[in-house]
Design brief:
85% of the residues lie in helices and 0% in strands. The protein contains 14 helices and no strands. With 424 residues, it is mainly alpha-helical. It folds into 2 domains: 6-203, MFS general substrate transporter like domains (Growth Hormone, Chain: A), CATH 1.20.1250.20; 221-419, Growth Hormone, Chain: A (Up-down Bundle). It has helices at residues 6-9, 13-43, 49-75, 78-102, 105-133, 139-189, 195-198, 211-227, 229-260, 265-290, 296-316, 320-348, 354-379, 386-423.
Length: 424
């Protein structure tokens, strides 16, 4: 397929089905997660520990399964993994309905944990399938579509969950969740994907899934990253990015609550969500166009310099209008990075290793993300001011931009030279 526009991607029926499946799966997840948060606050408002445990049930599977998810996506049939994950999540959602009616919270939390764990298996397999049905040159456009989807859910996701909860309650919301997973599975079943794209490492069965084999496959993934300089450099930068994201997860709310708008911070936080979604949506459209005109590494570098500047200036902001305008500027930088980062990563990673490389991203980021959050929890406000958090985040982004500026352009030129030699 030679079309290189966003709409042209959907002429590829397999991609259209995979995108639709991802959309439905995301609708179900966001609706269910938001509705469940409202349910916990309504039913257990005087026991906030339940809300914390709920969040843990969604995040903990990453720590337990990161070594397995990518291995499974590269070893077994990716299409069957994606279909099975959606089907299992649909069944688990129905069981969750029963657990909620029963009212036994340990079972509810257990089902949330298992469902989250299954979803962690879905993501690398689905990403690898998309890589398998598109040409490498189309990956930035595909990442642009993912960014637009993410932007839409930033804008509308919480509203969808809230409306679902208000009109159909927690049971209706979880039922919508189950239906979305089921339809997502059916869409993936309809894909006609080649055996090579589904199992680039050759046929395998579940009987081969032994601890020793998993360890060997995971180790081979790490060695692959180490031997491929561009992949290694991109993933190494995620450690620094985790610091920035860890600070970013709390500093905006802290700035509004404790500095700029202590009386109206809640309503302004909703407004910030709208600003973020709108900025990301517009930035996604611009980023896809830029990806055709400038090197992808240039977009990555520019995004972190832009993020650093906006956060340095936000630390100095004394009014909400300036703060929001700078936040909009930062929102534009997010798709500028993501479209280029994930698009280039997909281009330079061999299909047979795509699952393992994708599965490394989140646990790597969680290391420094969690460390940053722990430091803020310990030091703020006694030893750490709100402005200091913005300065630390900006410094991390500036350092990452400089690191990529020094490392990525030479590596890109080297790769281009090698490709030219092989073409002769």
């Amino acid at each position: 397929m030679q079309t290189h526009t966003l709409l042209g991607l959907f002429k590829n029926r397999n991609y259209a089905y995979l995108f639709g499946a991802q959309l439905l799966s995301q609708i179900g997840s966001v609706t269910g997660l938001t509705a469940f948060a409202f349910y916990m606050l309504d039913k257990f408002g005087n026991q906030p520990v339940y809300a914390t445990v709920t969040e843990m049930m969604y995040s903990l599977p990453t720590l337990f399964l990161f070594f397995l998810t990518g291995v499974a996506a590269d070893r077994f049939d990716r299409q069957k993994i994606a279909v099975s994950c959606d089907a299992v999540n649909a069944v688990l959602s129905l069981l969750l309905l029963g657990a909620i009616v029963w009212g036994w919270m340990p079972l509810v939390f257990a089902l949330l944990f298992i469902r989250s764990a299954v979803s962690k298996m879905f993501q690398p397999a689905n990403a690898a399938l998309v890589r398998g049905v598109l040409q490498p040159a189309q990956m930035p456009e595909a990442m642009g579509m993912n960014q637009m989807l993410m932007s839409a859910f930033v804008l509308l996701g919480t509203s969808l969950g809230a409306v679902s909860y208000w009109y159909s309650g927690i049971l209706g919301s979880v039922a919508i969740d189950a239906a979305s997973f089921a339809v997502s599975a059916l869409l993936i079943v309809r894909c006609n994907i080649s055996q090579e794209a589904r199992q680039p490492n050759g046929p395998a069965s579940l009987r081969m899934l032994k601890l020793k084999q998993v360890g060997e496959d995971f180790t081979s993934g790490l060695l692959y990253v180490r031997r491929h300089s561009i992949v290694l450099s991109l993933l190494a930068g995620i450690l620094i990015l985790g610091l920035a994201n860890g600070g970013g997860s709390v500093m905006y709310l802290f700035s509004l609550k404790y500095k700029l708008a202590p009386d109206t911070y809640e309503s302004l936080q909703i407004g910030m969500t709208a600003v973020l979604g709108a900025g990301m949506l517009f930035g996604s459209i611009v980023s896809v166009r830029l990806a055709k005109k400038i090197p992808l590494y240039g977009m990555i570098i520019a995004s972190f310099f832009l993020g650093a500047v906006t956060h340095f200036l936000q630390a100095l902001a004394e009014d909400t209008v300036t703060f929001m305008a700078l936040y909009l500027l930062y929102a534009l930088s997010i798709p500028l990075c993501n479209v280029a980062f994930f698009g280039w990563l997909a281009q330079v990673t061999e299909d047979r290793m795509m699952g393992r490389v994708q599965a490394l991203i989140q646990p790597i980021m969680m290391l420094t993300f969690t460390a940053m959050q722990a430091w803020i929890a310990y030091a703020f406000p006694a030893q750490l001011s709100i402005e200091s958090i913005f300065y630390v985040v900006g410094a991390a982004e500036l350092a990452l931009g400089l690191f990529y500026l020094l490392v990525l352009p030479p590596l890109a030129k080297k790769r281009a030279a090698q490709a030219a030699e092989q073409a002769v």
